[in-house]
Specification:
With 337 residues, this protein is an alpha/beta fold. It has helices at 14-25, 50-57, 61-72, 74-81, 97-106, 128-139, 187-194, 246-260, 305-320, 327-332; strands spanning 2-3, 7-10, 30-34, 47-48, 85-87, 90-93, 112-114, 117-120, 124-126, 143-145, 148-154, 157-162, 165-169, 171-174, 197-206, 214-217, 220-225, 228-232, 236-237, 270-278, 285-288, 295-299.
Length: 337
Amino acid sequence: MTSSPRILIVGAGVLGLCTAFELHRRGHAVTVVDPGEINASLVAAGMVAPALESAIDDVSPAQARLFRAARDLWPAFAEAAGISLARRPAEWRGGDVDGIERRMRALGFDVRREGDRAITQDDLQVEPSQAVEALRRALGEAVTTGRATGVEAFDGGWRVTLDDRVSEASMLVLATGAGEPVPGLPSASRALVEAITPIRGQIGLAAIALAPHVVRGPGAYVAPMAGGSVVGATMEHGRRDAAPDPATGQRLAEAASRVMGRIIDADDFRWRVGIRGATMDGLPLAGAAPDGERLWLALAPRRNGWLLGPLVARTVADAIEGRAPDAEARALDPRRF
């Protein structure tokens, strides 16, 4: 069986779905190939958090501006896609409150101090399952289940082997997260995908209310989630194993207990693991591939997939349409490496 969509996107995590939705609302015909697994975008707290992410990682002013620009795309994107966007405070408690406050202030973010807490109004949150469902609903029949087992360039575009069928498209977007390179990729693109570092993240969900908004501190965060709360998250570089580890869950619960000043029992949580991907500079690959005409990348947002989703989507869509790159697009250009 052969089908011929104009743009085929391999991967249905946050970057793949956001990119598909952006192209779809611009009038492009797209098909998204979903391998049908629970991906890292669902194993997440849905933080759209430029202020605290910038302060925690002590990023450069340029990267903080990029994070802020990504956040600023969210209100219009969420409204168009039917995604619920929570606007509520986020705070840091415990260890180095002075440093977190100082870094947020120096980078131009809203921050106020209340005792041993640094509080910002600049961070947002989405519910990952609701956001994914909204994007899939907006895309409708453009989302299909399948696993890409090979790609091949031909004069008119790309031929992609998907389980028991072949799909041909004039343009191909890779949004495969931290997965292994799809066989048949051109050498430079394959090398970029191979250089992505997998990062194992374990989080826990419980049907109990622990905080009315995101609370972060040394070693853990606690955030509201539909029907309860989420506690997370580890950043274990180089690991792809996806089975939850009880000892890791216990450590996260203990760290969350210190952050919240109350006992949080690891046994109350259903622990899950997602495998994220990261580049050498911590920013995603978004835009034209370094080789392979009509090939585009939307990969490796580290732990900021939800924050960067609409920005990656805009960057890839603009590149496909031949628009001149802005400063954010240049920062994410796969050819920077």
